[in-house]
TrEMBL record:
Keywords, alphabetical: Isomerase, Multifunctional enzyme, NADP, Oxidoreductase
Residues of the NAD-dependent epimerase/dehydratase domain: 6-241
Top-level taxon of the source organism: Eukaryota
Subunit structure as annotated in this protein's UniProt entry: Homodimer.
Biological classification of the source: Eukaryota, Metazoa, Chordata, Craniata, Vertebrata
Listed name of the protein: GDP-L-fucose synthase
Gene: gfus
InterPro entries: Epimerase_deHydtase, GDP_fucose/colitose_synth, NAD(P)-bd_dom_sf
Length: 317
């Protein structure tokens, strides 16, 4: 095959910006042309706009990141919108990729779409084994359908469409909006404001739920590996080890240290805890890449806080 034209949907988001940086910093190859697109280039909920985007760029490969995304509290408010927008986006992207003869598509699921009642650790075989947590069922069912579609496109048309399953992602260019965003960017923004206003930091919920966090720049390197080397239709979990899972309280403590916050810290247990945990196994990833080095959590938190402090004016918030 001649050079690859790699279209990245959701190229302006947390994960898209990380892939762009990793490619620019030396991971890109001379035979690869990378095209990063955002919603201003095409509204992917529209089938016509999506097809026009694919006809314009004629990609040979696609990393499909675009999605309606949000933290626990945004998901609880808009389950219907999460379901419909993401079903439309995913169907439009996968079908345009099929129609235009794209060689490979890597789409993005999430560990929060797994069954709520389950055994741990969760692995790739368990996506459809039971209902997801009620807080984000719209997002979860829409994301699960990507895996169903990937198998159907493979069986009926031989398409090489696959997916990855990251745990909670964080890093530069995240959505730092306190109401809508995920826990780490939300807490970083809250600490920033608490420092400025001399007010306490409010951690929502009990602080007891547990999460595996992956740094966006580590995830970006893994995405590029999947695009080049991973040839299964079945998904692969991209996660740090089970031993690296931390409580929300411990995660908040890392942010407090990185931001050098000396004020009072309180827990607002009137707010939801969401899913208690979703501990995922990275054994499949480790079978392929036994030596992959993840950035230590405290270093990644420090880099993200530094980025937010230096880019406060432009950051999404
Ligand atoms: P993000 O920062 O919110 O970025 C979302 C991206 O999707 C943006 O580029 C946005 O474009 C684009 N987008 C949204 N609606 C669109 C539409 N209708 N048409 C075209 N583009 C649209 O999200 P992210 O955290 O990078 O997430 C990337 C992928 O990772 C998603 O599939 C998400 O489900 C998955 N994921 C995320 C996490 C996490 O913790 N963040 C965890 C697991 C999986 P604009 O900037 O133009 O709006
Ligand atoms: P999830 O991992 O999909 O549940 O989504 P989040 O990234 O939004 O994390 C939610 C967890 O963090 C819940 O246990 C919340 O109670 C807790 N949490 C604590 N403070 C915050 C905050 O400021 N924002 C968010 N989104 N969650 C918070």
């Amino acid at each position: 095959m001649e050079g690859k034209r790699i279209l990245v949907t959701g190229g302006s988001g947390l994960v898209g910006k990380a892939i762009e940086k990793v490619v620019a910093d030396g991971e890109g190859r001379p035979d690869e042309q990378w095209i990063f697109v955002a919603s201003k280039d095409a509204d992917l909920t529209s089938a016509a706009d999506t097809k026009a985007l694919f006809e314009k760029h004629k990609p040979t490969h696609v990393i499909h990141l675009a999605a309606m995304v949000g933290g626990l509290f945004r998901n609880m408010k808009y389950n219907l919108d999460f379901l419909r927008n993401n079903l439309h986006i995913n169907d439009n992207v996968l079908h345009s990729a099929y129609e235009l003869g794209v060689h490979k598509v890597v789409s993005c699921l999430s560990t929060c779409i797994f069954p709520d009642k389950t055994t741990y650790p969760i692995d790739e075989t368990m996506i459809h084994s039971g209902p997801p947590h009620t807080s984000n069922f719209g997002y979860s069912y829409a994301k699960r359908m990507i895996d169903v579609q990937n198998r159907a496109y493979y069986e009926q048309h031989g398409c090489q469409f696959t997916s990855v399953i990251p745990t909670n992602v964080f890093g530069p260019h995240d959505n730092f909006n306190i109401e809508d965003g995920h826990v780490l960017p939300g807490l970083i923004h809250k600490v920033y404001s608490a420092k400025q206003d001399g007010t306490p930091l409010s951690i929502w919920g009990t602080g007891k739920p547990r999460r595996q966090f992956i740094y966006s720049l580590d995830l970006a390197r893994l995405f590029i590996w999947v695009l080049r080397e991973y040839n299964e239709v079945d998904p692969i979990i991209l996660s740090v080890g089970e031993e690296d899972e931390v409580s929300i309280k411990e995660a908040a403590e890392s942010i407090v240290a990185a931001m050098d916050f000396k004020g009072e810290v309180i827990f607002d247990s009137t707010k939801s805890d969401g899913q208690f945990k979703k501990t995922a196994s990275n054994s499949k990833l480790r079978r392929y890449l036994p030596d992959f080095q993840f950035t230590p959590f405290s270093k990644a938190v420090q880099e993200t806080c530094d980025w937010f402090n230096s880019n406060y004016a432009q950051a999404r918030k």
